[in-house]
Design a protein that fits this description.
The protein has 202 residues and is mainly alpha-helical. The chain is 73% helix and 0% strand. The longest helix is centred in the first third of the chain and has 30 residues, at 39-68.
Length: 202
C-alpha cells in the first residue's frame, strides 16, 4: 500500500464521499454480500490472487530456488507469470477490441508490469516464507489497477498530489527490506532445503 500512496491520495481527493462514509461502507455486510455475488469481483479479488500466487510462488519457487538460487528464481518465475496473462490478447483479438498493433502493444505493457509485480511477490514470499503477503498484495493491486500517473499530472491539485506519488516510491524502496525482515515471520527461508535432504538438481 505504501507504493500506492499517490493513487490512494488521488482517490481520496476525487471521491465524493467523506472518509467516515467510506469506513461505514467497508463495515456494511450488505456491501460485502454484493461483492461476493459479483463473479468478476470474486475472480479478480479472490480466485485469481489465490490460485496464481499458489502456482507461481508457492509451487514454482520451491522448485526453482534449489536449482538456480534465490536471485535467478525471483527473476525467472515472473516471466512465466507474465506469459500466463497473454490470454487477454486472444480475448481482445477475438472480440476485436482495438487494432492488432494496439492490442499487442497493450499486451507487451501488461507483460512488463506483471513480470515486475511477479518479481516483487516472489521476493515477499522468499523473505517472509508465507503466501498471505503475496495474495493480499495481488488482490490489492488488482483492485487499484496500474497507477494513473497521467491523470495525476493533469489533476487540478497536482502540486500536492505528485509529491505523494514520489514519497510513496521512496518509502517503498526504503522500507522494502526492513518490513520483510525474515525474523518478523519466523526466520526460516521459504525454500531452504531440509538438513540432510538430497540435492534437488544433481
Amino acid at each position: 500500500m505504501i507504493l500506492f500512496l499517490g493513487p490512494l491520495i488521488q482517490l481520496s481527493m476525487d471521491c465524493p464521499w467523506r472518509w467516515l462514509d467510506g469506513v461505514r461502507v467497508a463495515f456494511d455486510p450488505r456491501f460485502w454480500a454484493l461483492c461476493l455475488g459479483d463473479v468478476r469481483w470474486l475472480r479478480n479479488q479472490v480466485v485469481a490472487p489465490l490460485t496464481e500466487e499458489l502456482v507461481f510462488r508457492a509451487c514454482m519457487l520451491p522448485m526453482l530456488v534449489p536449482c538456480t538460487g534465490p536471485g535467478p528464481a525471483v527473476l525467472a518465475c515472473p516471466l512465466f507469470f507474465g506469459v500466463a496473462h497473454f490470454h487477454h490478447v486472444i480475448e481482445q483479438l477475438r472480440f476485436r477490441q482495438g487494432s492488432v498493433g494496439s492490442i499487442f502493444m497493450s499486451a507487451a505493457f501488461q507483460f512488463s508490469y506483471t513480470a515486475v509485480f511477479g518479481a516483487y511477490t516472489a521476493f515477499i514470499f522468499l523473505r517472509t516464507g508465507h503466501l498471505a503477503g503475496p495474495v493480499l498484495c495481488h488482490s490489492f493491486c488488482n483492485s487499484m489497477g496500474f497507477p494513473a500517473v497521467g491523470a495525476a499530472w493533469e489533476h487540478p491539485r497536482r502540486r500536492a498530489l505528485l509529491p505523494c506519488y514520489l514519497l510513496g516510491v521512496l518509502l517503498f524502496l526504503l522500507l522494502l527490506h526492513p518490513l520483510t525482515e525474515p525474523a518478523f515471520f519466523g526466520g526460516a527461508p521459504a525454500c531452504a532445503p531440509r538438513p540432510g535432504a538430497p540435492p534437488a538438481c544433481s
